[in-house]
Amino acid sequence: MLHTVNKSPFQTTTLQSCLRHTRKGDAVLLIEDGVLGALKGTDASGDIWGRRVEVAFYVLGPDADARGITKERMIDGINVIDYEGFVDLVAQHKTSQAWL
Amino acid sequence: MKFSILVNEGPYTHQASDTALQFTRAVLAKGHEVMRVFFYHDGVNVGSRLTVPPQDDRNLQKSWSDLAEEHKLDLVVCIAAAQRRGILDEGEAKRHGKGEGAANLAPGFRISGLGQLIEMGIESDRLVVFGD
Asked: Does ipTM exceed 0.90?
């Protein structure tokens, strides 16, 4: 399953809720303000770091760029994709869940 | 692959109707089919032709209308959500006695019911939700 998260983890607990429901082989895509969850060294970083072995993490590049979040500032191992990559992720996973 | 898109957030609120637009463009660019885009809750406000954003800002209604025209997209606005928010087509404006010229549904959009959302959920390969 693909999960999309569009809220900052410093604003809501959406990312935490999402991560609690992820299963091995799932993918999580951070979009819009959700890209703030990709920052390393924050109070929220540990949640993604703890799931990195079982879950693949992606960030929508244009949304990260718009917020000044460069690859260097992201948690190691997070993949940066564009909108076409987003479409591919949706196609690759039978279902998708938007965590709003 | 057959995609459908659900937009639950209004324009110029956060980013959902922008993301949905960019995503829909990418779906089409990759050669997939877009069966329908359904606008629900505040998302129906995207379908108002009366919006006049500043010239140096993006015009979401026009962008959706243009994309619909170019790709023959089916843009559906939920009737109950639309009526609450004053989004009316000619028929609805007349039915509710709103007077001549009150209709404001933008080109390329049509008003219909939740059955259209259920149908696209069943018939599409993928349903992607954007919202607040």
From this structure: yes
